[in-house]
Amino acid sequence: MSEESPTAKPARPAEAAKPPKPSEPEVASAAEGAHTPGAPRTSGAAAAGGTPPGPRPEPLRFFGTSWVDHTDRYGLRRVGVAAGALAAAVAGCLVLRFAYQGLEIADVGAFVNLLVVIMFAICSAIAFRRTWEGFGKRHDPQSAAQMRSLMTIGFIGSLLAYFFRSLKEAPGEKLHREEYEKARVRYEKRTARRAGHPSKRKRRK
After folding, report:
1. 43-59 burial by CB neighbour count: b if 16+ within 10 A, else e?
2. Count of CB atoms within 10 A of residue 81's CB?
3. Are 124 and 89 in contact (CB under 8 A)?
4. pLDDT, tens digit, for every residue of 93-104?
């Protein structure tokens, strides 16, 4: 009597290879690299304790954040800004001189020449004053947009304001230092308020 052969079962399809689960260090590094929109960024040095937590100083043009502790060639930067602003102002005066000579050659009249000189003198004076005031307070963005054309015409006044301010400090340093110190005080108050008194926290528990 012949034995019946067992029915061969169909071969099961090969299961798709599942991706390996990320290890805990990989998950942690991915979580650290993610950044929530709107949240302040924290550098690795700050997280590791290299820099104190809290608000960071706003960098200044040509100075970066060297104005905070007057480090990173702060004095040389001031000398460079002062020399550059003065040289640019002298070059601007030479350009205006050539333009004035062009008007004289065109023979437009003494009255027009006088109006041009008065216009540049007034615009330069206004630009100097507004630039100097901007080192101590922030101007309204709307008014700054309205005065943009006048500031462009009186660029020599702005350059002279940068020159004279650089002899004392970095242009804008006073304003940025006041804002930075106020932000630090607010941050310390918030931190102290959140921490609370240790004895009171123990009683609540």
Report:
1. eeeeeeeeeeeebbbee
2. 21
3. no
4. 999 999 999 988
